[in-house]
Give the backbone structure.
Amino acid sequence: MNEVGESLNFIEHIVEEDLRNGYSEKDLRFRFPPEPNGYLHIGHASSICLNFGLGLRYNAPVNLRFDDTNPAKEEQEYVDAIKKDVEWLGYSWDTERYASDYFQQLYDWATALIKDGKAYVDSQSSEEMAKQKGTPTEAGVDSPFRNRTVAENIALFEGMKRGDFAEGTHVLRAKIDMKSSNMLMRDPIMYRVLHKEHHRTNTDWCIYPMYDWTHGESDYIEQVSHSLCTLEFAMHRELYDWFLDQVTDSKRMRPKQREFARRNLSHTVVSKRKLLQLVEQNVVKGWDDPRMPTISGMRRRGFTPESIKNFVNTIGIAKRENLIDVSLLEFHVREHLNKIAPRVMGVLNPLKLVILNYDEGEEWLEAENNPEDESAGFRKVPFSKELYIEKEDFKEEANRKFFRLKLGGEVRLKNGYIIKAESCTKDTDGNIIEVQCTYDPKSKSGSGTAESLRKVKGTLHWVSIKHAVEAEVRLYDRLFTDESPDTHKDKDFMEFINPESLKVITGYLEPSLKNAQIGDRVQFQRLGYFCVDPDTSSEKLVFNRTVGLRDVWAKIQQRT
């Protein structure tokens, strides 16, 4: 049990209370139950961390259960992606389960309910059932098929299972209370006819159980102690318990459902239906597009499991929904990458710089890999007469607050020398295409001379032109311009797509990156954090911008 004084979320308080009231820690079992109809997203990360975190806290098993009851939308691709994402976050499940494992048991229990007069086959259309169900303020009315005989219901249900009927002709409904104040209790549907091939059971079944019927019964079969759901299932708890009442044995663990609030993330959507729309309409390049809020998309963008888990721990588990600013997630990404990412130099908007008094040779300078990690060591970077710097780092004339390079001014080249801008060359349109400089040969970084210790206010990153490695660099930004794009009643969320969410440019990188491997994360000094994309090949390096060094969106919002 929990040490006194440690802060607990309300779900942990529930578990602690149960332990005080007779549960044993060996009774505890949790589960993460995704439906394999899409890829996991940042919202699922909270549920993953909650359930597997409880498993770690109490040394209790956690099942990974796929609620695969809708073959029209579910695919093996999604199963594989979900398993990969959970493992990438650092969690291991006790057993891999599927709701489809229990189809026969669920069918047998449903048949028993029919025999007990607690379920019946309804032959109304979906429109007719919707009308007779009533409204939140008006009671429903009984289906004209509610009082079919047990024999007739059994025969029809068996025929549904055999595939004798077309989709939409019959459903199996629980016989509960058409006047209940909770509309979910007004004879909910338990089974529908679907002539679809299932990714695991093939065409063995022509009927498929509804989620509410499957959920609690699966928890009971697996002996899950605490079934943790998001808040929209709070009204389902009464039905969850009613279904359990029909099948539970007092000698076995009875699961309890408890709910926590979704934590929505700004500037994105997390509805699987809407994410699928983005994929199908080619707004993004797949579920793992680095602009997507999917775990696979964030992995491809360069996020770390630690940063996502730190974000989830920061926002916590709550009873009320809230919109979390994506800047908080980006903060945790920066914080972790700052500790682990090697520092390298790359130029993304190149301007040629020529050092007039440097000979035609080259030298290799020593550069620190990560000042946050003493064990990261040093590397060598080549220095030569012709370099690239960022265009933004030079102005012919500038005020005293411009600490980068300007005519007559001095800056230090990172890990290298102090240079002074002497002149510049322009093209016919007046654009600066080259800067001519001189360097102070006694000012080399780390040389220990008095001149090397001379201070100048600006330090620039650079790359040697003849040694530079070209790379495709993908500059990702937020996918939506609005912080809550799918909450506008009069506008479609697609209207808020950010046209600047992806820019593809050519970058010039120091040669140490020539053999970078897919997934490697680095900091391009002064520019941001980047990672090597899976599109990288032996012929072409591809880097994704994970996040900038600073939250530029915060500044934009302050100006608007």
Summary: The longest helix spans residues 42-57. Residues 1-5, 556-560 have pLDDT under 50 and may be disordered.
